[in-house]
Amino acid sequence: MARHIYSCPLRWSDMDAFGHVNNVVFLRYLEEARIDFMFRLAPGEGSASFTGGSVVARHEIDYVRPLVHRHEPVRIESWVTKIGAASLTIAYEIKDPEQVYVRASTVVVPFDLAAGRPRRITAEEKSFLLEYLDDSATPADVTGRGKAVAA
User: Fold this and answer.
1) What is the DSSP letter of 12?
2) CB atoms within 10 A of CB 126
């Protein structure tokens, strides 16, 4: 399984009164990594994959240890743990080589902005996501594994 790696700079304004990154700011870090993963790495030159819109249906965050300001960016690793017909789950670790600060996951729903409703994951998107699927995923974690997904 491949992991998407995002190098996230820390900003002085990310700190709270206690001198560490505020818990709400971690959601922004996850968003930056997710956008980099889904939009910049979308398959194919000029591909419309993931560009039509998506919404976050759920976040789960476990704060493992405080992260304090420093000049070096923090590493965010992202991978896919579940691919459904019309949603996917992305897992993350915000970390340094020697320690993890946050473990999190986000359920993302592709969205048709023009129609104003969720849409199914396309075959091209699924193919891209499968490259980042966790090795421990079961067939139940992938809707239609081995079958074409309706666009």
Assistant:
1) G
2) 23
Kindly report the backbone phi and psi dihedral angles of residue 11, in degrees, each rounded to the nearest multiple of 5, phi listed first.
Answer: -110, 145
The pTM (predicted TM-score) of the whole model is 0.87
Give the tens place of pLDDT for each residue, 34-82.
999 987 766 566 677 777 788 999 999 999 999 998 999 999 999 999 9
* Integer Cα distance of 139 and 83 in angstroms: 10
Name the strand (E) or helix (H) holding 94.
Answer: strand 88-96
**Does residue 100 lie in a domain region?**
yes
Distances (CA, A) of 150 to 2, 93, 123, 125: 25, 31, 7, 11
Give the C-alpha separation, 145 to 138, whole Å: 10
Alpha helices in the chain (DSSP H): 23-35, 123-130
Q: CATH code at 67? A: 3.10.129.10
pLDDT in tens, 128-149: 899 999 988 788 888 765 444 4
Placement of tokens 């922004």 in the chain: 28
Q: How many separate domains does the chain show?
A: 1
